[in-house]
Amino acid sequence: MDKTYVLVPRKCIGCRTCELACSFVHSNDGKLGRSRIHVHPIAEGHFIQMNCLQCVEAACVKVCPTKALARSEDTGAVRLLEGRCIGCALCATACPFGHIHFDRPAGLPVKCDLCGGEPACAKFCPSKALEMR
Amino acid sequence: MTVTFTINGVQVEAEAGGSVLDTARRYGFEVPSLCHHEAVVPYGACRMCLTEITRGKRRKITTSCNYEVLPGIEVRTDTPEVRRHQSMVLELILAKAPENKALRDLAARYGLRVPRFARVARQKIKDCILCGLCARVCSESIGAHALTFTGRGDLRDVGVPFQGEPRTCIGCGSCASVCPTSCIVMEDTRTTRKIWDRTFRFVACDVCGGPVMTEEHKEHAIKTAGLPAEYYKTCPTCRQNGLAGHFARVGS
Ligand code: SF4
Ligand code: SF4
Ligand code: FES
Questions:
Q1: What dihedral angle (degrees, nearest 10) is formed by the CA atoms of B227, B230, B235, B237?
Q2: Which domains are present in chain A?
């Protein structure tokens, strides 16, 4: 884990390319609602990206009844182990920042895992408002 | 302790106590399953996960989900014989739920279209294949013990013990999430959730009034998950919006 995932809201132009990339990579779906990252307009011409903070003492990890959320050693991200998840949605309800959404049709939470160290959102951001550095 | 054996001729390693099925999947070998879930104890109900396992001089076709890894065993997941047995098992399961989408998709992979057997569906829930995964997850993972098998023989069923409303159900929806045939009906409105014929009220989000979780699930979470009640006051969307708004104020 030599690089850090950095969000630079000042540079965000609100194009939502990150949301598209995320949704596509993880659910083969162009639906922005399936994205793990979300862009919020905060003022005329200003935006902020909201994504999982990979908390050190993560509420989602604490509440999961099946240990389906675990810290990945190579990226430091809290990753969903799909095979262990029973779809109770408690993680989504417990995250104090609202960064996990629950995909009801799939029965699974939608949660950032940093794409194993090379986040698609950062790769596609045209204005370097998301970066690994 | 690590155990070494082979799957389709490839040498693999697994922790002692693990299952052949989980190991095979970890190494990228496809093995079908319906009643298996990593979160609960293997049960061996559906028989879809059949593989060929040779141990010393003994070779047999057996379920891999509840077969503990052993040093030196040879596992085959893809022989014509294995597929023939899996196909037969699936044909029998299909007789319980001939129109089910998940089962039909699986059947297509075996070139099965119309099952030879007459429909034998006497279960109360349409498309239930009696794998019991819902009941196991409810008891082992959630600890609610709301579901059980009822009846015997061809009257066997999965559902609420002694009929009526599921008294210990918390309306978490996990059973519906894990059901391999998606046959558990859960109906959500903005304020209520109906599942197993019981209607639950949602905790309303402090900001938008939308659903957070059922009141019973909240009580259960406060008792078992170790976070205080304040964590369950708003819905994820409003929480994220609130945080964005907070940063906007800090930034300006
Ligand atoms: S939805 Fe899955 S990952 Fe989230 S708390 Fe429930 S079991 Fe754990
Ligand atoms: S919804 Fe009710 S029956 Fe289903 S897993 Fe949750 S507590 Fe058990
Ligand atoms: S998955 Fe092994 S018997 Fe069902």
A1: -90
A2: 1-51+115-133 (3.30.70.20), 53-111 (3.30.70.20)
